[in-house]
Specification:
Length: 445
């Protein structure tokens, strides 16, 4: 004979369910009939304070729109006798006094289920509530992080396209896969005409084989790449450029990208050749001067970031007060190592204001017309407070954001030693017995 079935305490079973359930009468007031222990815990309200009371008396809504959503969900279950999941709602709970009191922000996902009797009539409405606050916060944090990443990528792409430097990248095996707008404007060719090894076709025939071999050697050895060659400009003229590249490596040391930049050094190259043709003494001086120039160019290159790798002095100022936002290592060094970022040009480099160049910056910012200066003399303040005469060739141009002026970019290189070399060459002319071609040095350094 089977053992008699033990009576089941269904109320105790219901209250012990490991989820947040609320049992509601189907009347318009939605009277609270019972809830699970889990619901009591998350609602921070005792069962005695809720059971027997209308829904909104037991759990006041934080907003009229939230209350309307709950009423509409109850009415949906009463009318259609089917489950209804509400939109995500915010319902703040009062902290216990021992936890500091006040309201704590919570977000909930609630679903109402119909409980039907044997005659098919609605007997109860069962509310299942899930606390999704942490998931929502995590999703928001992820969305914010993604937006920041997207903004930074867009910012980086914008600067890459607008810096006055010929920038390119290559795959680990050396195939060129990107050229910035400056490169394409210089060559007058489409991106598709430069990718892979097609860029070699635009080199001077006498340089093409040498450059191909040097690039292949750097790729094979994984070592930095530096080469000078003649590149055909959009007008058909071959211009000497200095091209450098560095490999970027992953955590295991494997190369996953090559980043390169090129600078037009044609004028400097021609000047050096003129000096070399003068006489042996002038040639030695020119060789030393150009070696110093190359060393200065190398010092402008950094492996830390793409802009630090650019073979030039690059500074970015933002706003109409020209506040430094970025200055690469070469730019910083040229300014005597003084602190630039976060300060205005007038504050950080007062000698520019003394020369009246702030008017030039204002004009470029106002009109959008780039400004280019060659061998501009300036007395630079050093870290020890002293000054030294220097000469710079630079380009200043405006960049925009959302169609409005946003700031200026400065691309420059110091030509002090070349100016000094030319001045020395001029002083040596009587010794050489004839006039050598070349520019006349400035009146004062």
């Amino acid at each position: 004979m089977p053992a008699p079935a033990l009576p089941v305490d269904y109320q105790n079973v219901f209250r012990s369910l490991p989820e947040n359930f609320l049992l509601i009468a189907p009347n318009p007031e939605a009277t609270i009939l019972d809830n699970t222990d889990s619901h009591v815990a998350v609602s921070l309200k005792s069962r005695e304070a809720a059971v027997g009371k209308p829904f909104f008396e037991a759990y006041p809504a934080t907003s009229e729109s939230g209350a309307a959503q709950i009423r509409e969900s109850h009415e949906h279950v009463r009318r259609y006798l089917e489950p209804h999941t509400m939109p995500l709602i915010r319902y703040d709970l009062a902290r216990p006094e021992e936890q500091g009191g006040g309201l704590e922000e919570f977000y909930w996902q609630a679903t109402h289920y119909p409980i039907i009797d044997a005659q098919g009539q609605l007997q109860y409405i069962l509310q299942r509530t899930q606390n999704v606050t942490e998931q929502l916060r995590a999703a928001r944090a992820a969305a914010e992080a993604q937006q920041r990443l997207t903004d930074e990528q867009e910012r980086t792409r914008f600067i890459l396209q607008n810096l006055p430097v010929l920038i390119w990248t290559a795959t680990p095996d050396g195939q060129r896969d990107y050229f910035n707008l400056r490169w394409l404007e210089f060559t007058g060719r489409e991106m598709s005409e430069e990718l892979g090894e097609k860029w070699l076709a635009n080199l001077h025939p006498d340089d093409r084989g040498r450059v191909r071999d040097e690039w292949a050697q750097s790729v094979a050895a994984g070592t930095p790449y530096q080469v000078e060659y003649r590149l055909r400009r959009h007008d058909g003229q071959y211009r000497w450029i200095l091209s450098r590249a560095h490999p970027r490596r992953d955590a295991e040391g494997h190369i996953n990208l090559w980043v390169g930049g090129a600078t037009d050094i044609h004028d400097q190259k021609m000047m050096v050749q003129e000096i070399l043709e003068a006489n042996e003494q002038q040639a030695a001086l020119a060789e030393q001067s150009y070696a110093h120039y190359q060393l200065a160019q190398q010092q402008r290159q950094s492996l830390l970031a793409l802009f630090q790798q650019a073979p030039a002095q690059i500074g970015i100022v933002r706003g109409a007060d020209f506040r430094y936002e970025f200055a690469n290592a070469s730019y910083q060094a040229a300014m005597g190592g003084r602190e630039l970022v976060g300060r205005t040009v007038a504050e950080a480099v007062p000698e520019i204001a003394q020369l009246g160049l702030l008017d030039t910056l204002n004009e470029v910012y106002r009109t959008g017309q780039p400004y280019e200066a060659h061998e501009m003399p300036i007395n630079l303040r050093q870290a020890d407070g002293s000054t030294r005469p220097a000469y710079f060739t630079y380009i200043i141009q405006r960049f925009e954001e959302k169609g409005e002026p946003a700031g200026l970019t400065s691309y420059a290189y110091e030509v002090t030693e070349l100016v000094q070399a030319r001045a020395a060459l001029a002083r040596l002319q009587p010794l050489g017995g004839g006039a050598a071609p070349g520019p006349t040095p400035p009146a004062a350094a």
